[in-house]
Design a protein that fits this description.
The chain is of the alpha/beta class. 34% of the residues lie in helices and 16% in strands. Strands 1, 2, 3, 4, 5 and 6 form a 6-stranded mixed sheet that branches. The protein has a two-stranded antiparallel ribbon with strand order 7-8. InterPro entries: GDA1_CD39_NTPase.
Length: 268
């Protein structure tokens, strides 16, 4: 699942309206078929010319249970190349931004360690051309637009004042549920090498993150009981501005039934 999340985070770059986005858009189409490559070094201007550092991108995945950092490095052909011994720099903190509802500055400060990690990896001379994107998911969608925007504004201020990364306030936002699903669909099919072939060979459904999965199960359930609720619960559930009935089954929560319900939904 971690690899799927990593590729989904990388796909967020396609939203960036920047020179970096132009590089992606005009890259050789074959780039999208390569998972990784070996860094290409520019022709040396002299015996002691420094090696090319490549290009970088910084992605924050702000989920309901925690915030995750992905730093990617690319060569001139837009192939992913390693950072240290891994294909990316990855780090995470808990809890998620939504846990700080009503305390926006605390929410922003919670990701400061991740921002510092990103700054330690990207060469200082490249920071101004390195885009930073934060996509928040179900957690911030749940707490309401006003509180979510307060947190996002505090995060924007933190990024703008505490780093020199390429900054655009529109790059720090809440993803729609449909966007989240589309990114994960593309990521999973990409990792399974199912893109570009017969439609029916592709994976047509996904398991979502910790909170989004429960919400999709509740929406999918048409019967009297919900298999994702603890025994004894009966009430309503609000997700993304809509209200749903939620009554536990007599046997309580059932993982296998939840999985089957998610699998029965066609998101594409």
């Amino acid at each position: 699942m971690a690899r799927v999340v990593g590729v989904a985070a990388l796909l967020l770059l396609l939203q960036l309206s920047s020179p970096y986005h132009a590089i992606v858009a005009h890259a050789d189409p074959a780039v999208l078929g390569r998972k990784a490559g070996v860094a290409e070094e520019p022709a040396a201007a002299g015996k002691n010319a420094p090696a090319g550092p490549g290009r970088y991108a910084v992605i924050f995945d702000a989920g309901s249970t925690g915030s995750r950092l992905h730093v990617f490095r690319f060569d001139r052909r837009m192939d992913l190349v390693g950072i240290g011994d891994d294909i990316e720099l990855f780090a995470k903190v808990k809890p998620g931004l939504s846990s700080y509802a009503g305390r926006p500055q605390e929410a922003a400060n919670s990701i400061l360690p991740l921002l510092e990690k990103a700054k330690s990896v990207v060469p200082s001379r490249l920071m101004k051309t390195t885009p930073l994107k934060l996509g928040a998911t179900a957690g911030l969608r749940l707490i309401g637009e006003e509180k979510a925007e307060e947190i996002l504004e505090a995060v924007r201020d933190l990024v703008h004042t505490k780093s020199k990364f390429q900054y655009n306030p529109d790059w720090i936002n809440v993803l729609e549920g449909s966007q989240e699903g589309h990114y994960l669909w593309v990521a999973l099919n990409y990792l399974l090498d199912k893109l570009g072939g017969d439609y029916f060979s592709r994976i047509r459904y996904l398991r979502f993150g910790a909170f989004a999965a429960r919400a999709e199960i509740l929406k999918a359930k048409n019967g009297a009981f919900s298999s994702c609720m603890l025994r004894g619960f009966s009430g309503t559930y609000t997700y993304n501005g809509q209200q749903y009935d939620a009554t536990a089954s007599p046997n309580g929560a059932d993982f296998d039934k939840n999985f089957d319900l998610i699998g029965s939904q066609k998101f594409i």
